[in-house]
Write a structure and sequence with these properties.
Blueprint lengths: L1 H5 L8 E7 L2 E9 L4 E7 L6 E6 L1 H7 L7 H16 L3 E4 L7 E6 L7 E7 L2 H19 L15 H12 L17 H23 L3 H8 L28
Antiparallel strand pairs: 1-2, 2-3, 3-4, 4-7, 5-6, 6-7
């Protein structure tokens, strides 16, 4: 039965968190086994103090009013505890430097916060717990070539250099566009073409039609021409002479 309940608490296994309370700093570890969900709390300082607390299947069922919950209810409960742990919504209750028994509060600002009692470990137990923690850290570091912390990914130098080269080719200042390079809307371009066509047609009509002076000169009949028929020469009339009576 214990295995059935705690099998849904796997999301709480191997979690670690830091709690700041006043001037004190605590490290919090979460572990899940077949028999219990355990919390280890360590205080940073020269004394190296550690506390331990756990919830068994019986403790979990007491929270659910002694009723065997469904798997979905257990999974939701474990997920809420995990979210509270990861978000750091935790507090150390009944904490003083002299007290040996304290508690860990989940959701201290919630309407129904949960409390897990913690008992202080002896010096030998605290040293054993610290050693076990460092062994786990060392085993995980083997996959990183024994680096204590994961290395940051190297910066892509090639990509940055190409980006710098492309940036260097860009002009530092924008060259002003000439009038011919200024983009003209399509409507203005069509109007401009019509204007040019009219100007060309007007120029051709001027070339075909004679000038004003030429018209006035050509329309004037030649000297001696007939006014009725400009192409026909005018007749010359000889003046008549009359004899005087004296003769």
């Amino acid at each position: 039965m214990s295995t059935d309940v705690l099998s849904h608490f796997g999301v709480l296994d191997e979690l670690i968190q830091v709690i700041y309370q006043g001037f004190d700093r605590f490290v919090l570890l979460s572990q899940v086994t077949e028999s219990a969900w355990s919390i280890y709390l360590g205080l940073k300082g020269p004394e190296g103090r550690w506390w331990r607390g756990s919830w068994s299947t019986k403790d979990i069922l007491n929270i659910t009013n002694g009723v065997q919950p469904s798997p979905q209810v257990l999974e939701n409960f474990a997920e809420k505890l995990r979210t509270t742990f990861v978000n750091g919504d935790l507090a150390i209750g009944d904490w003083t430097e002299k007290d040996s028994d304290i508690n860990l509060t989940f959701g201290p600002t919630a309407k129904r916060p949960l409390h897990m009692a913690l008992k202080e470990l002896s010096a030998a137990e605290a040293a054993s717990q610290a050693t076990a923690l460092f062994i786990d850290i060392a085993l995980q570091a083997q996959s990183r070539k024994c680096q204590l912390n994961p290395l940051f990914a190297p910066r892509n130098v090639a990509a940055e250099s190409s980006h710098a080269n492309s940036a260097s080719t860009l002009p530092s200042k924008r060259t002003p566009l000439g009038l011919s390079q200024v983009p003209v809307p399509a409507v203005n371009q069509a109007a401009e073409r019509k204007i040019k066509a009219l100007e060309a047609e007007l120029a051709r009509s001027k070339e075909k039609s004679p000038s004003g002076d030429a018209i006035s000169t050509s329309s004037r009949p030649p000297k001696g021409a007939s006014l009725a028929n400009p192409n026909k020469k005018a007749r010359k009339y000889q003046a008549l002479e009359f004899e005087s009576d004296e003769d």
